[in-house]
Amino acid sequence: MDAPTLADRWAKERSRHPLVFFFVQRIVTMVLMLFVLGLGVFGLMSLAPGDIVDNYVRSQMLTMTDFRSNDNAVDPQQIAEAKHRLGLDRPFYEQYFHWLKQVFIDHDLGRSLISRAPVLFLVSSRMINSIVLNLISLVILTVASFSLGIWLSSKAGTKLDVAAAFVSLFLNAFPGILLLLLLQMFAAASGWFPVTAYPTDNFEGNPTGFGFSYLYHIFLPLLGAFLGSLGGSLRLIRATMLDQLGQPYVTALRSRGIAEGRIRFHHAFRNTMNPFITGSSNLLADLFSGSLILEIIFSYPGIGRLMYEAVLQKDINLVMTNIMFISALLLVGMLLSDLALALVDPRVRYQKS
Amino acid sequence: MNGWMKRMVRRPLAFGSLIVLVVLYLAMAFCEFLAPYDPNRLFEHYSDLPPNLSWYSNEMGFGPQVQTMSMVNDVTQQYARVKGEYTPVHLFAQGQTVPMWGLFPLSIHLFGTDFDRDPQAKAQPIFLFGTDNLGRDVFSRILYGSRISLTIGFVGVFLSLSLALVFGGMAGYFGGVWDWIIMRLCEFIILVPGLYLILFLRSILSDHMDSGQSYMLITVILSFVGWPGTARMIRGMVHAVKRQDFVANARLESMPSLSILFRHIVPQMSSILILSVTLGVPGFILGETALSYLGLGIVDPAVSWGSMINRDATSVSNLIAFPWLFAPGIFLVIVTLAFNFIGELLRDWADPNWKEAS
Amino acid sequence: MAPLLSVQDLRVTFGDVQAVRGVSFFLNSGECLGIVGESGSGKSVSAWAAAGLLGKDAKIQGTIVRSPRTAMIFQEPSRSFDPIMNLENTFLETFRVQKPKTTREEARDRAVALLGEVHIAGARDRLGSFPHQFSGGMLQRVMIALALAGDPEVLLCDEPTTALDVTIQAQILALLKELQTKRHLALVFISHDLETVAQVADRLLVLYGGLVLEEGRTAEVLDHPAHPYTKALWDSRVRRGTHYLTDPLILIGGQPPDPRVPEPGCPFAPRCGRVRPECRAGIPPLESAGPRTRRCFFPLEAL
Lengths: 353, 358, 303
What we know:
The structure holds 3 protein chains of 3 kinds.
Chain A: H1 6-16, H2 18-47, H3 50-61, H4 76-86, H5 92-104, H6 119-153, H7 159-173, H8 176-190, H9 207-245, H10 248-255, H11 260-297, H12 303-312, H13 316-344, H14 346-349
Chain B: H1 2-9, H2 12-29, H3 31-34, E1 53-57, E2 61-73, E3 78-88, E4 90-100, E5 104-112, H4 138-174, H5 176-191, H6 194-203, H7 211-242, H8 245-252, H9 257-268, H10 270-293, H11 305-312, H12 316-321, H13 327-350
Chain C: E1 5-14, E2 17-27, E3 32-36, H1 43-51, E4 59-66, E5 70-73, H2 87-98, H3 104-117, H4 123-126, H5 136-148, E6 154-158, H6 166-182, E7 186-191, H7 194-200, E8 203-208, E9 211-217, H8 218-223, H9 228-235, H10 277-281, E10 287-289, E11 292-294
Parallel strand pairs in C: 3-7, 3-8, 5-6, 6-7
Antiparallel strand pairs in C: 1-2, 1-4, 8-9, 9-11, 10-11
Helix pairs in contact in C: 2-3, 3-5
């Protein structure tokens, strides 16, 4: 009798703890993807036309004492030397590994070119702001589209349903930027709501006050983001509910006398969570993308606005770190939604025995 | 052809949208004729003027006319109407000479006043939608701006769709390694959220460009961000169609692969492609608008609706004082809604079952 | 004794689609009635109407009298289960319809017993499994077990074996026959496949174009078919051991009728080999003598 091979033991462990293995596999994939993404980002930046890098070098040179000259003029040779000093003439993969080392071993994400502030500090504080905003947005959107979607599915075919379909289409099609701008105009004109999205009070001194003020400030922009995304989610849920209610298993349940309400909520509804969760990572990405404009219009100190300012100021360090952070965030989001899916849908958890 | 016209008429929303779009695109084509003035022309004494067309006055009776306004407040740029002074508006009026389609000079416009023809007279220029802070006619700017805003959608969708067809088709047809590589590539591009990726790409490229270059640049960037989504869908469809008999038959006759793809598979997907185009165009238009709004898109002297919004509609106080500056926004809404309504109709036709279950 | 299921002059319309145009049948205790017809003949719709499962969009006319202890099984077992609910909870839920206070332990015991009746061994260990972990044949057995949970006297079977492969089909048919005897169940077996139905049914009902064309005891109907359609259907079956070159399939030419535009006369007229002008003029009336019934102006067999 042969001893069980490593492969056999691996398969056995895998089937015993399906969720754990799933989780681990996804994390490994995630790390790999981030790694390759970073490589791609560096690679793209190396393809950038010369003057970007030159500008960067010039601004770096202003800080390096031995390059400083009286009139701040530089000649190409000095630029080349500075490039060499900064390691910018090495191939992009070398630069990448250097950066990786710098990040993970030295824990140094560098400094912003313009503000000289440490990148980590800038990004992390802004990131939290954006995450909070978008999470609130996601939660409200989920709750609203589920309740409305389920309710509408019970009214399928009626005039109300047709009207709701039109409204959803309208909201979906309406340009998000304009909606936000209109809301801001409304705020300014009526004075009922603040025009910026971040409270001026301090958090430390008065947490509850801050909390309320925060909600007051983000109300209008959140409304804009919510209305923009509601149409799509609502239609998805309504369509999925109707699709589920037409499935053979619903008829089978009815034939056994299961109550209609239970069919609707305990069966159809739980099965509509599946495609919604699958699409939720997309939704999150869209929310982040949309919140970028929102942050700029409403002067909200989030990572979107940071990215925008960094791009305007050609602050390459900041731009790159932002991209990596936001991608990492979205990968985590994807991971969480995969996890949620595995929890909700046994077909994902258990393969056929 | 007749069939779909009949079907379309029964859906007034989509049909109306189609008409609106046709009108707007025609207007775009003939904008040199329809716009009374050059979009960059500065009317020095008429900055921040409200729309000045009126239809009736005691002096001139019914008919399109312009009432003279004079500035009462230098600081807030407020105007008051001058009683009794009116300028008639003519159809097919002689006006400023502009190059029609860049080819030949045209001086007759659809409507205008005698402002250019007769500088001596006290004729006022006509501003259907008022002017901006430099005294440029908003109506003309909207018309000329539509050239960029309306076309960028189609150019971008064409580019994006071509990329998606090529890559998605290859991935679906050849499978194996190609499939894997292309799908990973798609995943990466999809990974970074749209606007961030756009900003990033925009940032690594030079910003000393003329308007022609920036137009192409924006289009390329937007297409680059947009193609993976469609590519994945196309790959799926190619996979499915690949298994059908007639592609195998084509292969037996040893046709080269690419023409198999195009000749056999594309017609099957035509309805989905048309849908992609219709729903993709507003996405591109909004992408350009967003970029121009952020100041990273179309720059002066070129005009686009997005750049107009960026210039004039960002400051809230500005908009409250001079609300007509929001006009490009209105047009934007109309165009995006129109495309979406038509797209909705097409979706109903392509798959009547997608909306409701039994 | 009164029939356990009685359907009289059933007419079902969905908008402008006339699915059932006047169908009557009954089911006595302990017998198996087979309902045969092509797709669109109205067989499934009749059964669903009899079970009370049609939706709001169906306009139903006619009289249906059924026993409260009626259960039903359906065609695609793999799609007839909520994919996110395991077997134990599925049984528990069904038991709680009759007896809301059923505990989990009781449910488990009863489920294992029912699953034993449908010959699923080692059921107790598998109660935590989900539908996708079972094969089609097993799921059909589970569906039968669930149907038996309410201790029915009537079991309606809507094409229960159509989606299964041949060997499994035979097992399920055998199981149904066994349950018919052991539990004194009355069965209604619906299928488009005459051969399959012939194996289980005591009586046959042949439907076409929303109407009953023939009815009678299975052996009689198949040996001496009265309606040309029945004969054609029986002749067109695939016989084992034949080769398509020497014994080509006998097909029925033409297309099934469109329920939106019914024929003015006999629904089978366009495809009938014995058609005459009178057949298209009006719908032939149903004539019966004892258990035999047929609807034809020029039947193959006299009553």
